[in-house]
Amino acid sequence: MKKKLKKQIAAILLLVVVSSCENELPTRANYQAYSFTGLDSNGGTWKLILLSTQDQIIVSAPSNVSSTAYQSELAALKSTTSNLNGNQLDAVNYWSNNSIVRWNEIALELVAKYNLIPGPNDDGTYTLPNSANPSGPPPFPFAHPPYACRAFAYLSVAQFDGLITAWHYKYLYNRQAPYKVDSSIPFAYADNDLPSYPSDGAVIAVASRDILSAMFPLEKEFLAEKAKEHLESLIWAGANVDSDVAAGEYIGSEAAKVALARAATDGMKKAQMPKPVSDSIKAAAFARFGWQWDNLELPVRPVGLTPLFGKVKMWNVPTVEEVRPPIPPTPGSVEFQKHADELVDFANNMTEEKRKIANWWSDGLGTYTPPGHWNKFAKDFIIKYKMNPIRSARTLAYMNMAIMDAGISCWDAKYYYHYPRPIQTIPGFKVILGTPNFPSYTSGHSTFSAAAAEVLSYIFPNEVGLCKSWAMEAAESRIYGGIHYRFDTEVGITQGKSVAQYTINVAKNDGAGN
Amino acid sequence: MMKKFTFLLATLLFVTEWLQAQTPLDAIMMKQRESCFALVYDEGKFDQYWEGKNLRTNATIATVNRQTVLPLMAIGVHNKVNLIVAVPYVKSFSSELNGGKFAGAKGFQDLNLALKGEIVNKQVGKGKLAALATIGYSTPITNYLSDYRPYSIGFGANEVSLRGIVQYKLAMGIYVRGAMAYLWRGQTQIERDYYYNNGSYYTTWMDVPNAWSYNGVVGIRTLKNSLLLEANISGLNSTSGDDIRKYNAAQPTNKVDSEQLGFQAQYYFNKVKGLGLLTYYYQVINGRNVGKVSGFGIGGTYVFKI
After folding, report:
1. What is the mean pLDDT of residues A239-261?
2. Mean per-residue pLDDT for A120-125?
3. Each residue's pLDDT tens digit, B246-292
4. Does residue A249 share a domain with residue A115?
5. Is A70 a domain residue?
6. A450 in a domain, yes or no?
7. Nearest beta carbon to residue A366 from set B101, B103, B196
8. Are A213 and A284 within one domain?
9. Residues of chain B with C-beta less than 8 angstroms from the C-beta of A25
10. What stretches in chain B show pLDDT beneath 50?
11. CB contact under 8 A, A113 and B60
12. Which of A28, A116, A299 sits opposite B246 (nearest CB)?
């Protein structure tokens, strides 16, 4: 009996020890609403990206705070905020006073969810995702890096244009926040003097919902629920009355329309193409250079990923040709062999450190992609530097435009040069990262990363060292992973930097400082 | 473009079940100061796996092979308490041709420790009833990457297990045995700080699901006790976890279930005292997020006094 008891005690102790080792795993950025470093009261005068004027979206003057209409809104707000339940308080806490972070996080998650390459059918053919039939199979979209960087760019641009418009009207009409009008109303976040009409939160909620619903049509309901909760949280937080929210919703919806109109005609629809056209691109490269990239998957994938993404309309670079990199070394040449030997050497002498770097930056299938990785960094900086929503949106808009331009330029080089991957040129070569379904030169991750690092370095001058070292490590990781030659990555870094310069030049003159 | 797929079963076999010989699973006890050393070579492979519950092939990984060398020691620290220690060395790789051209993996996997205690051993009716319990612990001893399915050589987390074993043996040498265990599995550290597991995770840690494990055996001891033949069924059921996403790589968070049938023979030489040979075969017949593995093992056992 004694023995049995001892055993039971031991078992219980064991359980306690085992379960206490399990840490709670974070599923989102860990931050609380914070006090903004500034309000950017001139935000309404900043240069717009797609809208032509600050009052292109027309928002009429709100009713005066002394009006009966406003007073009844205020009364409704008071009664709501005095009876908040736990879920409502959680929502207020979750959305915070900078919901740009949350919507970007949602975008990243959807990319990770949809970043699955369609597998072969039983007969060895492949079916491409089709926006006309999003349920598939396979489901639409396949959120690969070009798709992802474009979704992030339109999301950030719509948010930014919407917020510039909102800031314009906020300071034009100067209607105070409900908790300023009536001091008995509790405000969930740090007090500030930002006028509350139109609601910036509502702009973000609706613009984000509409852009992401267009990019991820199967998520419409999920996004509508998210936006609904977000909009309600603005009232629960005591930040806005109904008419603030309604005006913000209108701006968000209109800004999204303008962004989606550009997206509809930016050339992305033609980026993926049928095999004969793709073959002709390949043949043209072979005629020009004497080499061509081949997909080595089994069964062979007939068309590479988005061969005409290089023709998609750029944000800030006039023509893709002006940023096209020079010709890479001919396979088999002395220069080439040097780089191929390096790959073989790394593969034969893989270290834990190299393996870790390769995996850290892999950002492959099923993840938020390399552009997503940089959005994560940007959000961390936004929180660290306590940016307000309009400055956060600006940071992400410029970074994501630069990333998308970098992607377009990179894809132009990829299909212009049509350069074979290491597994194609080096017999028996083995990799620790999956080799993507597009040509090698230049490295996408390097180009994306250099562009993102340039913009973030401009906006966060204290982080230059960190950003640049990250970009260099991201580039290096592709060599360790066995999917790129060093010249792919080095030229990619140069290319990303030069592409980003166009965006930074716009940012320098947008009226917002750095 | 495609990546790594699942091949957990051999891991399960060796981490939680080890092998069918002198293990935490069986009812054999070493006497005090008696020890048994076993060395087993195992080879398993699969060319189909369950993606969730859907059985499929995948030319990216083609046939995945896994070879294991398992040294194992069972020590009689007391007539009724045995200590078992095992350290598998594992090598995994894809057959040629494959579409992924992934490098395999190899290395020492986990240190496995178990204490096995005999609780009951008495005559009941015409036969002998034995009841035993094992408490096991395993921990990775090298920095292998658990997040490299299907080539990962293990799941990369600590495990604590509690197992009960009951055996009934008739005088003519026929016996039946059942074992049931619960496996507490910790978290494994991976080399990226974001992953998708039915939602975003911003961490380098993954939860490896806990699991139930069971094992049933019908066997016979014959030829004057020198030959032992067993047919077995065993399984594993994770209590949580996600499914492998379509045409995507497996990961340590997956809910892994499996059921397998096996057969084993052990022979003890009468003329060479203490020496035995064993061989076995197994086939996974049903599963979830696991390879449809078939494999075999051969090995030797040697019992000696300390």
Report:
1. 98
2. 96
3. 999 999 999 999 999 999 999 999 888 889 999 999 999 999 999 99
4. yes
5. no
6. yes
7. B196
8. no
9. 187, 201, 203, 205-207
10. 1-22
11. no
12. A116
